[in-house]
Amino acid sequence: MTKIGTFKRRKPWLAALVSLINTGWGQFYCGNWKRGLVLLGIEFLLGAILVFCMGTFSLFVLCGTALIGFNVYVAVDAYLCARNAGDYALKPCNRWWVYALLIACNIGISSVYDSTVSGRFYNTYKIPSESMLQTLQIGDHLMAEMLAADDVVRRGDVAIVLFPEIGDTNFIKRVIALPGETLVVRDKVVFIDGKRLDEPYVYQRSTKDNPRTDNFGPYTIPAEQYFLMGDNRQGSHDSRFVGTIKRADILARAKYLYYPGDGEWSRWGKTIR
């Protein structure tokens, strides 16, 4: 093993590479361990900010770009540090176990993040079926805001829900009727407490009548429960079949598309309404 104090030139390409693998490692490699720790701290701060900026697509892109740019900056900084080091004398921070500790610290913090923060505020979902056509296409990837127990659920929300009778599979449907309201579906038209509901998002894939989907009710929604339906009214398994959904089973509210499954990039970043 090379002893501390031995002169050994730093390799710029290696300093840049290890910085991309583990933020701050390249600075440790060049002997500037204090700078490495500061940059590592900034990395986790930017990551935390990104978690809280996923609510809008523009902020998500802005913060994600800033984080990527920062990582490139750290790699370039390490490259220049190594190039300017000249005949470098190895320091205590160049011991193998210091590098191992740095990696373990990064992995540990990432693990804590995954177990305590990841998926708590926002989460991603992929659309597997056609039940929300034309609002959502098969293969769409979306960002959703996780709902706390006291968050208000509104009519029109596109929600991630559980149907307890089916299992622990996530479904995505639209909130149509709220607790205490009376819902009626007549000839494909929805009425809430006797008033026709304006639904510009509805997709009727067939003009043929279907008694199972085109007519329903009247049905009064129980307290603390909600009636949800897919926008593709003739191709959705929803509250017309499984009943109302408890508030506790409404998990998240869809926010925007971050990847369009149909390849139409004009839909990239589209707000889900």
Task: Indicate the low-confidence ranges by residue numbers.
Answer: none
DSSP helical segment count: 7
Largest sheet: 7 strands, antiparallel
Q: What fraction of the residues are assigned to beta strands by DSSP?
A: 15-25%
Describe what is shown at a glance.
The protein has 273 residues and is an alpha+beta fold. It folds into two domains: 105 residues; 146 residues, Ribbon (Umud Fragment, subunit A), CATH 2.10.109.10. The longest helix has 27 residues.
Q: How is this fold's topology laid out?
A:
Elements: H1 12-21, H2 25-29, H3 33-52, H4 57-83, H5 96-116, E1 122-126, E2 141-146, E3 158-162, E4 170-177, E5 182-186, E6 189-192, E7 195-196, H6 211-214, E8 216-220, E9 225-229, H7 239-242, E10 245-246, E11 250-259
Would you mind describing this structure in some detail?
This protein is of the alpha+beta class and 273 residues long. The protein folds into two domains: 12-116; 122-267, Umud Fragment, subunit A (Ribbon). The chain is built from seven helices and eleven strands. A seven-stranded antiparallel beta sheet has the order 1-2-11-3-4-9-10, with no helix packed on it. It has a four-stranded antiparallel beta sheet with strand order 7-6-5-8. Strand 5 and strand 6 (189-192) form a beta hairpin. Helix 1 runs antiparallel to helix 4 and helix 3 runs antiparallel to helix 4. The protein is elongated, with a radius of gyration of 27 Å. The chain starts with 11 loop residues before the first helix and ends in a 14-residue tail after the last strand.
